[in-house]
Amino acid sequence: MPRARPLTAAAFAAALVAAAAAFAADDTVVNGLVRNAWYWQARARSDKAEEAWKQVLEAAPDNPDALAAIGSFNARAGRLQQAREALATRSSSALASDRCSRKRASSRTTDAS
């Protein structure tokens, strides 16, 4: 059986660049979907806005704006359990994001010393 060759630095760098490009493309798509949702919401088209926010959640399940909007739509429609779930997910996502931000800030101050 042939031995697996170690990943060369060039191949590793190429993989990192490809991954970064994929994340940037995903971010661009999500930003476009969010703009579309806000567009419909600003025009008081709650039917289209709700569908647009659902598309945002398909692309980015932890998007705080989409979770808040969907929670709000569900609450107004009397779907209280779904509203609670969306808002609970938003809260837990916000807590996780806040923890990551604090860790990054802490590591930056430690690195700067």
Q: What is shown here, in short?
A:
By secondary structure, this protein is mainly alpha-helical.
How would you describe what is shown here?
With 113 residues, the protein is mainly α. It has one domain: Serine Threonine Protein Phosphatase 5, Tetratricopeptide repeat (Alpha Horseshoe). 83% of the residues lie in helices and 0% in strands. The protein has helices at 9-42, 46-59, 64-76, 80-112. Helix 1 (9-42) packs antiparallel against helix 2 (46-59) and helix 3 (64-76) packs antiparallel against helix 4. It is flat.
CATH topology: Serine Threonine Protein Phosphatase 5, Tetratricopeptide repeat
The arrangement of helices and strands along the chain is HHHH
Oligomer: single chain
Radius of gyration: 20 Å
Protein structure class: mainly alpha
The CA-CA distance between the termini, in Å, is: 50 Å
| Helical proportion, percent range | over 70%
Give the biggest sheet.
none
In CATH, what is the homologous superfamily? Tetratricopeptide repeat domain
- CATH architecture heading: Alpha Horseshoe
How many β-strand runs? Answer: 0
